Amino acid sequence: MTLHLQEITPGNLEAALAVRVHPRQEHAVAPVVKSLAEAYVHPAGVAWPRLVVDGDRPVGFLMAALDVDWYEDGTVRRSALWRLNIAAGEQGRGYGRFAVDSVAAEVRRRGGTELYVTWHPGPDGPEEFYLRLGFRKNGEKSGEQTVGVLALERPI
User: Fold this and answer.
1) 46 alpha-carbon distance from chain centroid
2) What would the 3-class secondary structure string for 66-120 be?
3) Which of 3, 7, 49, 115 could bond 63 through an S-S bridge, CB–CB 3.0 to 4.6 Å?
4) H or E element: which one contains 62?
5) Please, how many CA atoms are within 13 Å of residue 151, restricted to the half-sphere of its CB?
6) Are 132 and 96 in contact (CB under 8 A)?
7) The whole model's pTM is what?
């Protein structure tokens, strides 16, 4: 596997928009087009959208929110995995883990020590995936979603 991330550009936009999760997961994660629209309307530098690519084959999409004023009052700044869409036929091959690890590395590079994520609870949700990666529920809710946090070690 030659996994890497690509910034979303005019050259790979259609490939990013073509990433679709399994139909039973559609209720739990927004489509890529909504994520890119949200990235566009937030201040520059907040959204970090990326295409997950294996060799030259797009296999997923992620978007992080980096160093966000979480409560919009200046008291708490957080970085989070905002969206993770792994294509239906590509799941179970390590691409999701690679995506989370890549976001964690970017947060560390920027000096962060925690990575947050939210997920829809339920049988078709990603809770077990995130818990296996080391995220822990912190008791918060974001709407109907569970909030998890992953402690990040600083690079040596």
Assistant:
1) 13
2) EEEECCCCCCCEEEEEEEEEECHHHCCCCHHHHHHHHHHHHHHHCCCCEEEEEEC
3) 49
4) strand 57-69
5) 3
6) no
7) 0.92
